[in-house]
Amino acid sequence: MKKVLFTETVLRDANQSLIATRLKYDDFAAALPIMDKAGYYSVECWGGATFDSCLRFLGEDPWERLSKIKASMPNTKLQMLLRGQNILGYKHYPDDVVRKFVEKAVEHGISIVRIFDALNDIRNIEVAMDETIKRGAIASAAISYTTSPVHTIKAFAKMSKTFKKMGAHTICIKDMAGVISPQETYDLVSAIKDAVDLPVVLHTHCTTGLAFMSCLKAVEAGADVIDTATSCFSGGTSQPATETLQYALSQMGYDTGLDPKVLTEVNAYFKPLRDCFLESGLLDPLVMATDTQALEYKIPGGMLSNLISQLKAQNAMDRLPEVLEETPRVREDFGYPPLVTPMSQMVGVQATTNVLQGERYKTIGKEAVAYCKGEYGTPPAPIADFLIKKALGDEKPIEGRFADTMEPLFEKTKEELKGIAKNDEDVLSYISFPSVAEKFFKERKEKEERKTRYTIEVIE
Ligand code: CO
């Protein structure tokens, strides 16, 4: 029987895409033993924005959260999303930090690390992948999917071959904007399957309404794993529904390994939570709807709303058509970066500035200058010469990998945090989000002191 496996995303991407990653551990703790019986290939539950959100908004230690999830789901592979050399943020970290982070993530229960780079610069994926393999976890190398004259099927197939040489266990097509079409999916999965004998995973979003069809075509082309979300947390900017695809694919003769009864139970658990978020306004019904603007403008939905709010703030909404025309030109000058964070912001801000100032690149943003220097990695195509000259003047771009210019950071930070950090995990939290972690440590300490005081009072 043909087989296709499922990764459930409700705890990470669905949570992140629909409700800004505000699911608390206590919200979903009781669902974990049920989810453990569903038969998923894996549960994506960590990385991405979950780490930051735990520390910043939820008052939870992300490392403890992970250990607790593992304890409640001993039979399921836990998966995380890692932004290569950026770990979970947007700046580059030295290699010792990247390695320590992966080591600790695996130690706390991660079995699959999905690693990507916003520019598809392999050098930013290498170290994280090497450490993942060393720690005995599954390294899933991800292609940041986008379309442009240089992002051809051939180029992506070549990238997959490189991933395989680096030791990747699976190849993931990561379509963060939900723009991959069913035909493109079919062609791309087929090309990757021809290029390498590795399992292929499709990750997409329902934003533009294509995802269900693309998943089906992916499976027809031989994809091995698809990312889905339990139905009440599916659709819109989230993933397609787990139960729906399980239903459709098993009728087509695929063994999904899933137990439909358990899937119903999982959904029944999350439904009241979804309703609470709808009621509180944290979940906006609009994000669950279909929006095809991204296909029309070739700009991801999130980026388009950023452009609009920028123009509104400057009372210049009438300039939107010009900005929409300028955006692809700026992207071309920048060497066709995939329009994902942080590149979507960088390109969007520059396009808006170019239009509003009435002169292209009269001012160039700080981030864009760093990008031209090579601090984000190598763009898919060369940056336009005139732009490099304008941004850097006589300064030369960095040769080689930006992280190679950085000093080791972990031991030094550990020393600095003596008396504040309880363990290596705290040090990594601090390195990732310094001020947020500092506040979290302080509040944690206050909470512990209150608890001790209370215990003493009760004893006395
Ligand atoms: Co995603």
Give a description of the structure.
- Strands 2-3-4-5-6-7-8-9 form an eight-stranded parallel beta barrel, surrounded by seven helices. The chain has a two-stranded parallel ribbon with strand order 1-10.
- The N and C termini lie far apart (68 Å).
- It is built from 21 helices and ten strands.
- The model has no long low-confidence stretch (mean pLDDT 95).
- It is an alpha/beta fold and 460 residues long.
- The protein has helices spanning 10-19, 25-28, 32-35, 50-58, 62-72, 95-107, 126-134, 153-166, 182-195, 211-220, 242-251, 260-280, 293-297, 301-313, 320-333, 343-356, 366-373, 385-392, 410-416, 424-432, 434-459; strands at 2-3, 5-8, 42-47, 78-82, 110-115, 138-144, 170-174, 200-203, 225-228, 254-255.
- It folds into three domains: 5-280, TIM Barrel (Alpha-Beta Barrel); 285-400, Cyclin A, domain 1 (Orthogonal Bundle); 410-459, no CATH class.
- It is 51% helix and 10% strand.
- Residues 13, 176, 203, 205 line the site of cobalt (II) ion (CO).
